[in-house]
Structure formats: C-alpha cells, structure tokens
Amino acid sequence: MDNTSIAAALREYFLACPLLEKYRVGVDWLPDHGVAFSIDTTPASQILQRYASGSSLRQYLFNLCSVQDYGPDTLQNLANSGLYEELAAWMDAQTKARRLPDLGPGRTPRLIEAQSTGYLFTVSPDSGRYQIQCRLVYFQKGDRR
Hints:
Blueprint (H helix, E strand, L loop, with lengths): L5 H10 L8 E4 L8 E6 L5 E4 L5 E14 L4 H23 L10 E8 L4 E5 L3 E14 L5
Parallel strand pairs: 1-2
Antiparallel strand pairs: 2-4, 3-4, 4-7, 5-7, 6-7
C-alpha cells in the first residue's frame, strides 16, 4: 500500500477548494497573525467496521482551522462564519459528486463532511481562530487473500 498520509491527501484536496485558493493551507500549524488555514488531526477511533477479509471501513477526524481578522466589526465576523458555512456546503457537494481526496491505492474515500458548524475557538486582540470539525470516511482494503 502507498504510504501517502491522509493529512497530505486532505491538504492537496483543500488546496483545490475554490473557497481557499487565496489562502495558505498547512497541517497542524497556524500563524499568530494573518489569514491562513490548517488541517489539524484529532484523536478518534479509526476503525468503524472490520470485515472478515481484513478490509475495514475507517474514519479520519480532523479540524479545518483558520486564523482570521476578528474584532468589533460585525460584518467581518459574519464573513468569517459565512465562509465556514460555505466550506460545509462545499464538502457536501463534493461528496454528492464523488469528488473526494485521492488516498492512494488500497484506500477508497466514501465521504467527506462537516460534523459541526464553524465556530470561534479562541481570540486575540485582532484575530480569531475559527474551526469546523470534519470527518473523512474511507474503505481500506485488507491484506488477507
């Protein structure tokens, strides 16, 4: 099986998202200032169902996070929240159209979805960290013959 990490596949996938094309997208890191996005892994049970063949249905939970301008400007804060609503809708549309991340051989993606609304996680004087909890479900081919 190819050793492509799921985090790397998700990063490539979100780099192609038209909503994020003007932003930097990293993994497990955000700057203190400036607008950027990050795919942050979250701990969870990975295997949803195991089959006799050795194959399994799995999930990969992650937060899609960003540092955004934040403050008393209601319009800016609404725009930040609205972007996360659009990201959730984009993931739903991608799943329906079967346009899912390339996970490499032996792993077939089934769906990508938001599991929460986007929300303000932490704030500093001029920026806020927003995030949305997401899930990728995929089938992993077993090694048994």
